[in-house]
Amino acid sequence: MSIKGAASGARHVRFNVFRVTLALVVMAGARVATAAQPPQELVWAGDSEGGAPYVEADPTRPDRVVGFEVEIADLLARGLGRTPRFINITFSSLVQSIARGDADLGLNGIEDTPANRAALATTVPYYKFREVLSVRASDTQTYRTLADLRGRRVGTLGGTVAYEILLGAAREYGVQPVSFEDDTHPYTDLVVGRVDAVLLDNILAERMLKKVGGFAIQPDSVAVGHYVGVLAPANVPLRARIDELLRAAMRDGSLERILRTWNIWNADQPELHRQVLAGEIIPPTVGLDTAPSVTTMSGFEAARRYLPSLLRASMITIVLSCLSMGLAVAVGVLIATGRVYGNRVVRAALTGYVELMRGTPILLQLFVLYYGIAAAIRLPAFVAALLGLALNYAAYESEIYRSALEAIATGQLEAARTLGLTERQVLTLVRGPQALRLALAPMTNDFVALLKDSSLVSVLTVLELTKQTQIFATNLGSWVIPGALCAGLYLLMSLPVSMLARRLEQRWKAPTE
Amino acid sequence: MSATVLRMSDVHLRRGARQILTGVSFEVGRGELVALMGPSGSGKTTVLRAIAALEPFHRGRIAIDDVTLDGGSPASNETLRRLRRKVGMVFQFHCLFEHMSAMKNVCLAPVHVHGVSQADALKRGRELLSALGVEHRADALPRELSGGEAQRVAIARALAVDPQLLLMDEPTASLDPDRREELGRRLRALLADGRTLVVSTHDEEFARHFATRIVRLQSGVVAGG
C-alpha cells in the first residue's frame, strides 16, 4: 500500500468508528424512549385451532385470524392506543402461559373459575354461556340430564368447568367423564357412538350442530358460566383499563354489535351487561364438585386428594405400556424374521412398513387410527392407543432384532446346521436366544421411552398419568406439586424395568447352572 | 483299503469368479485318519465345507456312504437330513453356542434333532466329555473355557450324534506341543471305535505321527498323497 493509500485507509477507519458510535448512541436513545413510553402493541393469545366463532384463521387469508374475540381484542387495543398482535397458544396451556407473561391478555372463551381468579388477574365477564348437554338425536328422550347417564361415557374438553361438572357427576351419578384435547372431536365421537353425550358451552354445541349434525342439544342447561379475559397476576393496572373499556363497550352497544355479527347475542347477555354495569358481584363458576376448591388447599392436602386419581392414571399408563410393548415385541420379531429370512417381496414390504412408521410422527398415526379410520373401523380409545403405540414401536423393535440377528456369527449358524438342526431350529434354539441377549439393553431403553410416549395417547381421550397431572395442575394453577408427583410415579414405573434388565444381563453373563 | 466312506470325484467349486476347487478327487476308507494338507488358500477348508454341504459346488460328485451330493444341483432336505447323521464337523474356531453350557452344547442335537430323551442325552454327554477329559467343565459357558477345552467340547458335540465321518478344520492351530500330542492320541482312539476322520492341517509333524494317510492339495487340486 502507498503512503497516500495508508493515510486514506486510516481516515476510513476513523470515519467508521464515528458512524458506529453514532448508531449506538441513537439506538440507546431509542431504547430509553421506548422504556418511557407505553408499549405499542397489545399482545393477546388464543388457540385458533378452537375455531369460530372465537378465534380462527381467516379462510380467505390464513395468515390472519377472525372471530368475535379478535374483534373484542381490536376494540380493546384501540381503546388502549395500541396495535393488537395475536399469538397462538394451545388452549390447555393458555392459563399457565399468560401467568408466566407470554402475552398481555388471554382471550379465548376462558371461564371465570376460582382457580383462574386465584392464579391470574381476570377481567369483568364479557359473555355469559350455558353448559348444555348434547345427545344423539335418537337419545333425546333417554338422556335428558346427567342423572340419566349412569355408567355412560360423557365427553368434554379437558381442563374446563364442564369437566369438573362431569367429575362431580361421576361421583354423584356414576357417569364416565371422557376428557378431549379439543372441542370438535367430542361431537364427532358422539355421532359415531364412542360417547353417549357431550357437555360443553352452548356456543360450541350450536356451532358443531351446524357443522356436523346428527345430534340434538337438550333445552335445559346444566350450569351457567362467564367468559373473562385473563392477565398475569402482576398486570392489575392494565386489567383496570381493560375492565373500563369493556364496560364502555357494553354501555355504547359496541360489544352487542360484535356479538350480533357472530350470531351469538342472546337473551342472557343484556342481563350480564346490566350486572356488570351496576357493579354487582358476579361469583365465579364452580363445577358440581362440592368439595373445597383445590386452590384454597395446602399443597399437602391437594397432593393427598389427587394422589388416588394419579395412581389410577399410573395403572392405565403401566397396563397400556406393558401390553403395547408385548405386542410391539411380538410384531417386531415377526418383522425382523421376515426381513432376514423372507424373499424379496416380503423384505421390500416390511422395509416399507418400518420406514413409514419411523418416518412419520406417532401423533399422526394415533389420529389416523382413532379418528381417520373411524368411519370404517370404530376402535375404542384404549384399543386404538394400544395398537398405535404397538405398531409404531414394532418398527423400532424390528430394527433392533434384525441387527441382533445379523450380529450372530455365521460360524454359529453353520455349526448348528452341521448338527442337523432345521433352519427354524437354528433360529429358535441358537440364533434367536443369542440375539435376544444382544437386544436386551436397547429393548429396555425402548420400553422406558414407550412408558413416556404413552402420554401421547391422551389425544385419544385415554386418561393416563401425564393427562391426569395436567388436569391436576390446571385445577391447582401450579405445576410444582403435580409435576413432582408425576415425575416420581414415572420413575417408580421405569426404575424396576431398568433394574430387572440389569439383573438379566448379569445372569446371562454368569454360568447357566 | 476297507469299505469306502467318502468318495470325492472331480469336484469343482467357485466363489463368484474365483475358482477355489478345480477337480478334487480322492477316497477315504473306513477307519482312516486322512490329513488334508497344503499351503494356505489351496482349498483344504473348502473341501471340508463341501463335504459337510455348507457350500454348494457346481461340478463333480461327493458320496458319503450311500448319500450323494451332485455338483450344480442343490441337495434336497431329505439328502441333507441323511448327510447330517453321517458327517460331523469341528470348526477351527470351535463355534460353540455362546449362550449354552458345555453340556447343553453337547446335548442340543441329540435332544432336538434325534429325539433322544433329556436323561439319555445327559448320560451320553457325560460319557463323551469324560472320554475327552473335560467332564469337570460341563457347566461352564464357552467363553469360560480355554482353547483346548473348547475344542474338546466341540469334538464331543460333533460326536454326540454319532457320525461315521468326522471332519476337523485345523485342529492343532491353537494347541501347544503337549496338547497336540494329546489330541492326536484321542483322535487315534476314535478310529478304534470304527470312525473315519478327515483333518485339515498345516502341521506336518502331527500329520506324519497320527494320520494313516496324507492327501496334499495344491491350487484346488489333489497334488499327491
Entry summary:
The complex is a heterodimer of chains A (513) and B (225). With 513 residues, chain A is an alpha/beta fold.
Q: Topology of this protein?
A:
The complex is a heterodimer of chains A (513) and B (225).
Chain A: H1 3-36, E1 41-46, E2 56-57, E3 65-66, H2 68-80, E4 83-88, H3 94-99, E5 105-106, H4 114-119, E6 121-122, E7 127-136, E8 153-157, H5 161-173, E9 176-180, H6 185-192, E10 197-201, H7 202-211, E11 215-217, E12 223-227, E13 230-231, H8 236-251, H9 254-261, H10 268-277, H11 299-341, H12 344-359, H13 362-372, H14 381-407, H15 410-418, H16 423-453, H17 465-476, H18 480-509
Parallel strand pairs in A: 1-4, 1-5, 8-9, 8-10
Antiparallel strand pairs in A: 2-3, 6-13, 7-10, 7-11, 7-12
Chain B: E1 4-15, E2 18-29, E3 33-37, H1 44-51, E4 59-64, E5 67-70, H2 77-86, E6 87-90, H3 102-112, H4 118-131, H5 147-159, E7 165-169, H6 177-192, E8 196-200, H7 204-210, E9 213-218, E10 221-224
Parallel strand pairs in B: 3-8, 3-9, 6-7, 7-8
Antiparallel strand pairs in B: 1-2, 1-4, 4-5, 9-10
Give an overview in words.
The complex is a heterodimer of chains A (513) and B (225). Chain A has 513 residues and is an alpha/beta fold. Chain A has four domains: 1-37; 41-125 and 228-277, Periplasmic binding protein-like II (D-Maltodextrin-Binding Protein, domain 2); 131-224, D-Maltodextrin-Binding Protein, domain 2, CATH 3.40.190; 296-509, MetI-like (MetI-like fold), CATH 1.10.3720.10. In chain A, 59% of the residues lie in helices and 11% in strands. Chain A has 18 helices and 13 strands. Chain A has helices at residues 3-36, 68-80, 94-99, 114-119, 161-173, 185-192, 202-211, 236-251, 254-261, 268-277, 299-341, 344-359, 362-372, 381-407, 410-418, 423-453, 465-476, 480-509; strands at 41-46, 56-57, 65-66, 83-88, 105-106, 121-122, 127-136, 153-157, 176-180, 197-201, 215-217, 223-227, 230-231. In chain A, the strands form four sheets. In chain A, strands 7, 8, 9, 10, 11 and 12 form a six-stranded mixed β-sheet that branches. Chain A has a three-stranded parallel β-sheet with strand order 4-1-5. A two-stranded antiparallel ribbon of chain A has the order 2-3. In chain A, a hairpin with a 7-residue loop joins strand 2 and strand 3. The radius of gyration of chain A is 30 Å and the shape is elongated. Chain B is of the alpha/beta class and 225 residues long. Chain B has a single domain, classed as Rossmann fold (3-Layer(aba) Sandwich). Chain B has seven helices and ten strands. Chain B has helices spanning 44-51, 77-86, 102-112, 118-131, 147-159, 177-192, 204-210, and strands spanning 4-15, 18-29, 33-37, 59-64, 67-70, 87-90, 165-169, 196-200, 213-218, 221-224. In chain B, the strands form two sheets. Chain B has a six-stranded mixed β-sheet with strand order 6-7-8-3-9-10, sandwiched between helices. Chain B has a four-stranded antiparallel β-sheet with strand order 2-1-4-5, with helices on one face. In chain B, helix 3 packs parallel to helix 5. The mean pLDDT of chain B is 91.
